[in-house]
Structures
1.
Amino acid sequence: MILKKKKMMMNKKTEALMKTLLSEPVAVIHSEYEDKPRTVAIIDMEKTLSVEEKLEKAFMLTNSIDSAWYKSDKVNYIGPEKTCRSTTPGDFVLIGKDKYVCNSMLDYPRAGGWSKV
């Protein structure tokens, strides 16, 4: 029993370490229609994805298409309300210390509508 418990603890520690090594949190910040910017989601992204891929994924995962995005298990919704609008031009994505503004999604799914600020 003690060995099983230690093995479970090691598995949890290993999982946490691997998550830290292989992924990074990306924040989605809504500001276009709000009085002040507010972080509404944290999404764990693979570190190997390019910036463009992370921006595309953040935009896609925070838009309601078939169902409410904030109920998805792929997104950690941390917004202040029970519901949340989709990400739109004028909103931001924070990757590490770099912040990007969504300018336009006319060329979605390509992330050409993003600018570093």
2.
Amino acid sequence: MFERKHDKLASRVVFLRRVDASVLMAAGLISATLCIGILGYRYIAGFVWVDSLLEASMILGGMGPVNPLTAVPAKIFAAGYACSAACYLSRDSACARNPSHAA
């Protein structure tokens, strides 16, 4: 996929295309995960749209919940969503420390 150790470096255009593809892929993944969280908090927990956005953003960002949850299905959704957010955060932090984990 990329050049080997002894190959000639990719041109600037190729490099920028790779960066663009990576940014688009990351933005798509984050957007999809955020949308799942917003819809879950909206329809399962019964929050209004703005509170759903806030809750999903805080969980995905690793900050924790803002509003209390009273219904059991909402608590189960929040637990699953928080676990998936933790997986993203732990993978991203591992990749930041050691790029060989990114593969």
